[in-house]
């Protein structure tokens, strides 16, 4: 059975625009997925990238155009300049880590709701009340927002180290159990083809 390690950031618009296509692909191929939220700005710094706010104006302008086009292509509504971005990604990431460990709910729904809240619903995903609401809506115990803090902080830091060690440098980033690497939501088709044995 194939396995995919999914490195992503809850504050990444490209993670949001991936929608739930990874889960559809994994289901199609009988693959399992481990969700590995991380601090993407720290990842940029460790791997030669630049935070969006520090990029040249031409790159920032292109990024906004690309986001607008991707939103139209995917049918996912997106505010290219949301009210609560940037925000602290750690609390939402800790909640996802705790939920994955606890089980019993819909992790895919939780991850997508976190990114959608930031990029389409003008919610601050660093707020406890927002996180609790999303945990409950995805079928998890809202108290995980508190219970999973220590485990979440430790795993969050380890996810970053693992991403650097395994060659990830952005989000979303997908790595198979055969070390095939796919960067960006626009490479999900390639991941699908790889799992089909065509790439």
What is the strand and helix layout of this fold?
Layout: E1 3-8, H1 13-17, H2 21-29, E2 32-37, H3 40-46, H4 57-74, H5 90-102, H6 107-119, H7 128-137, H8 144-147, H9 149-166, E3 173-176, E4 181-183, H10 188-195
Parallel strand pairs: 1-2
Antiparallel strand pairs: 1-3, 3-4
Helix pairs in contact: 2-10, 5-6, 5-9
Q: What does this protein look like?
A:
The chain is an alpha+beta fold and 199 residues long. The protein has a single domain, classed as Glutaredoxin (3-Layer(aba) Sandwich). It contains ten helices and four strands; from the N terminus they run E-H-H-E-H-H-H-H-H-H-H-E-E-H. It has a four-stranded mixed sheet with strand order 2-1-3-4, sandwiched between helices. Helix 2 runs parallel beside helix 10 and helix 5 packs across helix 9. The model has no long low-confidence stretch (mean pLDDT 96).
Keywords, please?
53% helix; Glutaredoxin; alpha+beta
- Beta strands, count: 4
Order of helices and strands: EHHEHHHHHHHEEH
Main beta-sheet strand count, sense and barrel state: 4 strands, mixed
Range of strand content: 5-15%
Helix fraction bin: 40-55%
Give the gist of this structure.
With 199 residues, this protein is α+β, with helices and mostly antiparallel strands. 53% of the residues lie in helices and 10% in strands.
